[in-house]
Amino acid sequence: MLTGRLLFGSGNGSLTIVQKRITTFWFKGKELALAFSLTVAFSRLGSVLNFFLTQTFEEKYGMQWTLWGVIVSTLDEIGVRQLGLDGAIQEESRKVRIQDVKLLSVRYWLLVLTIMFFYNGIFPFIADASKFIQDKYSYYSQKEAAYIVGAVYDSLVVLSAIVGILIDYVGLRGVFAVACAVLTLPVFGLLAFTFVPPLVSTIWLGVTYSFAAASMWPSIPLVVPQATLGTAMGLATSVQMIGIGISNLVVGQILGTKSSETKIPLWRWQRMMIFMLANTISCIVTSVLLNVVDHRQGGTLNKTTKKSGQEQSDPDREPLTQAEEEPNEQDGDAVRSRSINS
Predict the structure, then answer these.
(1) Mean pLDDT for all residues in the chain
(2) How far is CA 87 from CA 127, 277, 318, in A?
(3) Looking at the predicted structure, is the pLDDT value of residue 116 above 90?
(4) How many whole angstroms separate alpha carbon 230 and alpha carbon 93?
(5) What's the alpha-carbon Rg for the chain, to the nearest Å?
(6) pLDDT tens-place string over residues 234-274
(7) Roughly what angle, to the nearest 10 degrees, separates helices 123-136 and 106-120?
(8) Helices in the chain by DSSP H: which ranges?
(9) CB within 8 A of 217, min separation 6: which ones?
(10) Which residue, 121, 175, 253, 293, could crosslink 279 as a Cys pair with Cβ 3.0–4.6 Å?
């Protein structure tokens, strides 16, 4: 089982990095937040189906059937050739070097820490939330508890497109990052110290998660040089996963049981929620620092309109080549000529 989890994590992490790199290439300077939001939404749609269908499916068919499908890489390659941008991509690409880390700014690392701390409060909670709901609210069955936890992803799937369009139009990514963290604080407080129906908290968490996914990840291309974007995305994903892994270990120690059948005392669950709160407070601190540093360096993350975000360049970022801009010419030869000249 551990070997399988290791292989799954390796493949999933690599897929996530490539997915974000492809999304950034095709939607940079356009509807990037919308593209990221929809990508996350479809990823979480699988999680929604898992909460609704896994138990019934397992009872009827077992857990041996798996379906794989891969088409994105083929579509990406065909599209690049049609636009005549394959040469430009080769010019931009280079071997990954350890020295590339030096090109990543303070803003980037603050953004990475903001992402890590926010997700530290999301995924470890979701992993144990079904058990928590059954232990604290004894009138919920396992299936009902799973439905309630799935509301986090339900909210994301419903809101992702709207939130992405909003952030693409309004900008203010840094402000949204702070707001997401601040508005997430009451969620864990309600779960730990009140008996408010848990569905309220899971829907609430899904809303803040939607805004976080649409504001934080699409900010990375704005604060790193184009040539190091893949490295930057990879490092951000690695730091995020390391943080989640450590958080899961801490939560396991707090809950202190190896049996899923044993009812965990409420005080242990409260300590877990306090740990989630600590991560959220850390997210607030790093996101505020991110906004301060960004303001001193031109305020790239908080451009107030989509237009101004495209027109003004980031002083810490390498200028875009003409091949990276959206082509205006209808003539395909003109597009290819611009790529070669760049």
Answers:
(1) 74
(2) 44, 48, 19
(3) yes
(4) 9
(5) 22
(6) 888 888 889 998 999 999 999 887 666 678 888 999 999 99
(7) 20
(8) 2-27, 32-61, 72-83, 86-92, 106-120, 123-136, 142-170, 173-193, 198-215, 220-223, 229-255, 266-296, 306-311, 332-341
(9) 20, 36, 40, 115, 236
(10) 121
Q: How far apart are the C-alpha atoms of 72 and 255, rounded to whole Å?
A: 41
Tokens linked to 126: 């979701």
pLDDT band at 118 (very low <50, low <70, confident <90, very high): very high
Cβ proximity of 218 and 173 under 8 Å: yes
What is the rounded average pLDDT of the residues 204-221? 87
User: Is the pLDDT assigned to residue 89 strictly greater than 80?
Assistant: no
Element (H, E) at 48: helix 32-61
pLDDT in the model for residue 112 = 92
Alpha carbon 125 to its chain's center: 16
Task: For the chain, give the number of residues.
Answer: 342
- List of residues 6+ apart from 313 with CB closer than 8 A: 319, 320
Contact, 155 vs 136, CB < 8 A?
Answer: no
pLDDT digit string, tens, across residues 147-162: 888 888 888 878 877 8
- C-alpha distance from residue 203 to each of 159, 189, 281, 284, 304 (Å): 11, 15, 20, 21, 28
Residue with tokens 């989630």: 276
What type of residue sits at position 249? L
The backbone torsions φ and ψ at residue 194, rounded to the nearest 5 degrees and listed phi first, read -130, 170
One-letter amino acid of 273:
M
Mean pLDDT, rounded, for 25-54: 65
Element (H, E) at 228: none
Give the mean pLDDT of 73-82.
Answer: 62
- Is the backbone of residue 84 left (phi > 0), alpha (psi -120 to 50) or beta? left
Question: Distance (Å, rounded) from C-alpha 82 to C-alpha 103?
Answer: 32
Triad 180, 43, 275: Cα angle to 5°: 40
**DSSP states of 309-325 as a string?**
HHHSPPTTSPPPPGGGS
Paired tokens of 281: 């407070």
- Which residues lie closer than 8 Å to 325 by C-beta, 6 or more apart? 29
N-to-C CA span, the chain: 50
